[in-house]
Design a protein that fits this description.
It is built from 17 helices and 15 strands. By secondary structure, it is α/β, with parallel strands linked by helices. The strands form three sheets. A nine-stranded mixed sheet has the order 11-12-10-9-8-7-6-5-13, sandwiched between helices. Strands 1-2-3-4 form a four-stranded mixed sheet. Bound molecules: S-adenosylmethionine and iron/sulfur cluster.
Amino acid sequence: MRLILEGKINKLYVQSLCMVFFRGEKFPENEQNPMGTIYVKTTESQNGINAICELTYKDKNASTSAFVEFEPCDSYERTCKCAVGKAVYLAGKELTGREAPWGILTGIRPSKVADELLSRLSYENAHKVLVEKYLLAPNKASLTLDVAKNEAEIFNKYGEDTCSLYISIPFCPTRCEYCSFISYATKKLFDLIPSYLTRLYEDIREKCKIIKELGLKLVTVYVGGGTPTTLNEEQLTSLLTVISDCVDIDSLDEFTIECGRPDTITQKKLEIIKSFGVKRISVNPQTLNDNVLLSIGRRHTVKDFYDAYKLVQNIGIDIVNTDLIAGLDGDNFESFKSTVDNIIKLNPNNVTVHSFSIKKSARILQNDSSIYEYSGDFAVSSVDYAYNELVSNGYVPYYMYRQKNTVSDLENVGYAKKGTFGIYNVLMMSDNHTVFSSGAGATTKLVKNLSINKEILRIFSPKYPYEYLQDKQDSCKAILNFFN
Ligand SMILES: C[S@@+](CC[C@H](N)C(=O)[O-])C[C@H]1O[C@@H](n2cnc3c(N)ncnc32)[C@H](O)[C@@H]1O
Ligand code: SF4
């Protein structure tokens, strides 16, 4: 699609809004015969900003305008963004006939906007602003305000003197078709695991030493991936031994290991996990539909999930999470409804409902680019059903994020029974919490001076395990420099 912008307009914002209506759309410069053109222009008057949008796509066109008044609580940039957002949104809606539940909000964390509104308005007035100014569907406005309120419980508890540690195990038994995470999933690449672990242990020791030197209080440890339980029993024991040598596990508020794939869970591995004081794990069915599990390449069946879940229940880990994905190709409203109903019967502490998102590096897209045309419309009623059922069964939405190219532009929501919120999930999304990371594909995020001139530094580890093994960057020096 060709983009023509006149005025103070953020190009990336217009592109993201276009992708809400035209999934997977690209915006190359100097494209000869583009499928569509979008022209946006802003003009300023004494009272506010006016934006016009002319959108042409294939043989259709739409022309809209939007005016947003200056308000003392909003910066010039935000007023401009709202005017542009409204004009583009209305044009997209007119041309495609589709509504987008998140209106003109395209960011990863809509609850950040809700949080800012709640700091100066009542819940009802914040809701009104989200619906009228940001064009959110009323149920999404309520969801984001509820999440913001619940997130705040965690944000307020953990100050600048606390931090978290993320440990990356980028290996999985097989690669799921929809997945874009860095993860090695072949026998040949598994040969790297021993040297990867040796390097990782050094990394964990270094990060823990720095945490102590800086006098920070480590509050959560999260071992993720990939699928950490791809490691065999011996490897899992050695990893947990290194962690427990460096960390006072009893003093942590949360210690999570993603077990994710039921086909990696055994009684023995759970005993090891339990014996090292792990407080939270994930066992993820994604869907309780065998045909879909087969087509997404997860290699496990619904029965495997139930068997693994039973082992977990018997072993008695404090908090258990299950991940689901709404809108997968091959599922439908009835089958997803049945998944939600059956998961609720198991009564896990946490349920995370993702919406199917088509990622650039996923195999599903590389094998078939027409997947962008897949609508997965039933995901809308599926996530609404999940929300209603989970809430009426005592779960609350406590964290949320959005991704690009998601069916019906939906969101990912973490639900939890009171008192069992996944603390790391919330903290890692905030720009107010330091997270140290060890391992390939992980990001260390450092924050300081929260009250005056906040500073943030992100340090990226090499993406792939083989790069990580050869990496010579001295992240410890960069960390100490930042804090001193
Ligand atoms: C970091 S992944 C790892 C979890 C674990 N390896 C597993 O697959 O069970 C966390 C979750 O993100 C969700 N997810 C991954 N790719 C997705 C996609 N393309 N669309 C929607 N959800 C996705 C899945 O629910 C997955 O369990
Ligand atoms: S979805 Fe999970 S199990 Fe599947 S490849 Fe990605 S990280 Fe591995």
